[in-house]
Structures are given as structure tokens and as C-alpha cells.
Amino acid sequence: MVSGLIQCPRCGKTNRIPTAASGHPRCGHCRTDLPWIVEASDPDFGVIAEQSSTPALIDFWAAWCGPCRMVSPVLDKLACERAGRVKLVKVDVDKSPLLSRRFDVQAIPTMLVIRDGKVVARQTGAPTAAALRSWLDGAL
Fold first, then answer.
1. What interhelical angle do 129-139 and 66-81 show, nearest 10?
2. Which of 33, 45, 73, 107 is 20 to 30 A (C-alpha) from 9?
3. pLDDT per residue as tens, the chain (140 positions)
């Protein structure tokens, strides 16, 4: 599994965050919950998202998609605001065609919330930040 680095919003220390683990990430220095933002693809999606102990917010996107680029910073902010409560998993549809087919992604951006391996909510398009926040809170 690949891991990433994230700076703690509270103490500023850099932490290594795994793409898959039990529980959720916390700062090694001050123990603050950290946002969990990772990428997944066809081969590792099951371990990263479906087997996650934390509900996973899946973002199906593409680099060439204008609405995807508008939604992405909003999703990052939501993941930061809900650190410890949600794991943001970004899936590039161009690199993961099997996942796009499996979840019947017809348009992007498409967001799913997966809890205990099951899709519990779905949102397609680029809604406002307030609408996304409300949708996510309802799903969690």
C-alpha cells in the first residue's frame, strides 16, 4: 500500500497517512484526527474503500472535467472538516474503467458514500458546496 504525507492542521507536524488501515489517522504528535484523502484504482479499491472501517466518500473524476475540478476542493474541505468521520477516496475514471462500469458511472463528477462495503448514497453532477455538505451529512 502506498502512503502519503499530510501536515497536521493543529500542530503543523508532518504525518505519514496509509491508504488503508483500521481506524482513522491521527497526528503522531498531538493526536488530532487528520483528514484521510487517498487515491484508489481498479486493483486496490476494495482494500482502500470497501473494507474501510471509516465511511468512504468516493469521488469519480477526470483531469479533463471542468465540473470535477470545481467539486474537488469542496470535497477536500469536507474531508478536512470531518476528519476522523470520513475517508475521501479519489478515483480517476480514465485510469479505472472497471470501477466506472461496476458502479455504473455515466457522468462525472459522481460521488458515492460507501459504508460497510455497501453504497449508501449517490450524487452526480457539481452541486453547490452547501448542497454537497448537506448530502454528505445526511449519508453519514
1. 50
2. 45
3. 567 899 999 999 999 998 988 889 999 999 999 999 999 999 999 999 999 999 999 999 999 999 999 999 999 999 999 999 999 999 999 999 999 999 999 999 999 999 999 999 999 999 999 999 999 999 99
CA separation for the pair 67, 117 (Å, rounded): 27
Task: Read off the pTM.
Answer: 0.94
Tracing cell 502506498 back to the chain, one arrives at 2
Q: Within 10 Å of residue 25's Cβ, how many Cβ atoms?
A: 24
Q: Give me the active site residues, please.
A: 65, 68
Report which of 64, 100, 65, 72 is spatially closest to residue 88, judged by C-alpha positions.
72
- Asked if residues 113 and 58 have their Cβ atoms less than 8 Å apart, the reply is yes
Buried-state track 131-140, b at ≥16 Cβ within 10 A, e below 16: ebbebbeebe
**In this structure, how many other beta carbons lie within 10 angstroms of the beta carbon of residue 14?**
11
Count other C-beta atoms under 10 Å from residue 92's C-beta: 18
Task: Report the relative pairing of strands 56-61 and 110-115 from DSSP bridges.
Answer: antiparallel
